[in-house]
Write the structure tokens for this entry.
Amino acid sequence: MTTAAARELRAETTIAAPPETVWSLLTDFSRMPDWSPELLTMRPLLRGGLRLGQQYVGLNRRGVVVWPTRSVVAELEPGRTVAWDTRSSGARWVWELAATADGGTHVVHRRPVPRRLTRMSGAFAGVLLGGAAGHADELEAGMATTVARLKAAVESA
């Protein structure tokens, strides 16, 4: 897999609301498709709510291409960090919240690749999404959109 496709993707913003308010909206994963331009749905596969090891199935779309993903919550520090690993791609999706001095929240959304992107991910992106590096660029732009839409939703609530 190319370095360009496996680079860490990142988007961030500051939201004029305290971390607990942002966390509450962010972790209502049924709302994630309202913000993400690629995600159609994200649903838990196990009972018990948000917790380490919880699994989610996501359905994504880019143009006419639709595909499922299965993710497992790998990091969870309520009010501060949630991250899940998407097994089919090898990517980790991370949300980090930090209080700002003025009572707001600095939000960082990252997609590192802890080991490497999977061969299946590279083949899928190469054949159906126009190339892995190009899809990574689109994902990063989509992450910026997601963060901006989350900000707008929190600040208008």
